[in-house]
Amino acid sequence: MSFPTVRMRRMRRSEALRRLVRETRLSRDDLVLPLFAVPGSGVREAVTSMPGVFRLSADQIAEEAKAVADLGIPAVILFGIPEQKDARGSGADAADGIVQRAVAAAKRAAPELCVITDVCLCEYTDHGHCGLLDGEEVANDPSLERLAATALSHARAGADIVAPSDMMDGRVAAIRATLDAAHCESIPILAYAAKYASAFYGPFREAAESTPAFGDRRGYQMDPPNQREALREMHLDLEEGADILMVKPALPYLDVLAAARRRFDVPLAAYQVSGEYAMLMAAAERGWLDGPRAMLESLVAIKRAGADFILTYAAKDIAARLAP
Ligand code: PBG
After folding, report:
1. Closest protein CA for atom 14 of ligand 1
2. Which of 117, 198, 204, 248 gets mutated to test ligand 1 (max ligand atoms within 8 A of its CB)?
3. Is 143 a pocket residue for ligand 1 (Cβ < 6 Å)?
4. Distance between CA atoms of residues 96 and 180, nearest Å
């Protein structure tokens, strides 16, 4: 059967009809808000390249956590910007480090909120790379112990999920073993499994002060043209014990997300990164796009491609627009 018997437009004639046949729905349950923790108190510094995003001291993180929970958003992910940086990223696993204090503050203010922590060394190293250096080379194996110690210190501070984003080989296994040996066997690992060496992280690096002092991250993050390799990375992370797999960035890598959805039965996350957010906000500011509509369309596309949940800087604004 075909036209004129078949008319696809029949089911598009009203919003009620469209609602009945809608295949993908975005809800507050799908959103995770990234937060940047900085030292001090009463600090609320705007990130210029990300309108609506702030760097917050622990007391402000606590208030934000409450506001986020009140909006019905299930989770936040925390990044820390320490006072001091050194070659081995000592601040990353300090018991009273920036993220550790922020986690405790967020959990105290909103105990029901799921607090995820980003596990990486780049915000804590003076060279800005995600692992330890051997000369100008990022040394894989020596970095694993630092990453595992960082994840454990986050768990001890009260993190509900740890999320390694460094892209060292073997980090998931190292973190799992360290958590399990310390009786943190119930803490899930969200692996940034397919993380690409992307130009879309630009605004984040301003916010997190994590731009590498020399070179770039192409020696450890993935090469953008590769999809099969992403599936292999995800497979390896699952074998090492990852509970959730993530693709990052999101919109430029929807094919990777869709392929992962077909291949794996585990929860999948996607990170709508700083550059994706900044592009939409900048165009909206100039009146070139309807910002909220373009944002909703992007997030629905990421869900349609297969994400179970999405890390997005727009989480609060979008949650406020979605029906409870
Ligand atoms: C840390 C990390 C980065 C992002 C998340 N975790 C930066 C990077 O890898 O350079 C990017 C997030 C964003 O752009 O929103 N390794």
Report:
1. 201
2. 204
3. no
4. 22
Atom of ligand 1 at shortest distance to CA of 195?
9
- Answer whether 118 contacts ligand 1 (Cβ < 6 A): yes
Indicate the burial class of 185 (C-beta count within 10 angstroms; 0-12, 13-18, 19 or more): exposed
The total domain count for the chain is 1
CA of residue 201 to ligand 1 center, whole Å: 6
Give a yes or no: residue 184 inside a domain: yes
pTM over 0.85: yes
Residue 259 belongs to domain spanning: 26-321
What distance in Å separates the CA atoms of residue 265 and residue 33, rounded to the nearest whole number? 24
Residue 286 lies in a domain: yes
pLDDT digits (tens, 9 = 90+) for 262-312: 999 999 999 999 999 999 999 999 999 999 999 999 999 999 999 999 999
Q: Is 323's pLDDT higher than 80?
A: no
pLDDT tens track for 215-258: 999 999 999 999 999 999 999 999 999 999 999 999 999 999 99
> What digits encode the pLDDT tens for the residues 59-87?
999 999 999 999 999 999 999 999 999 99
| Residues facing 214 on adjacent strands | none
Residue 18 falls within a domain, yes or no? no
Residue 205 lies in a domain: yes
Q: Token digits for 146?
A: 């630092």
The shares of helix, strand and coil residues in the chain, as percent rounded to the nearest 5, are 45, 20, 40
pLDDT one-digit tens code per residue, 25-40: 999 999 999 999 999 9
The CATH number of residue 39's host domain is 3.20.20.70
Mean pLDDT for the chain overall: 97
Q: Could you tell me if the CB of 165 is within 6 A of ligand 1?
A: yes
Is residue 282 within 8 Å of residue 34, measured between CB atoms?
no
Could you tell me the end-to-end alpha-carbon distance of the chain, in angstroms, rounded to an integer? 40
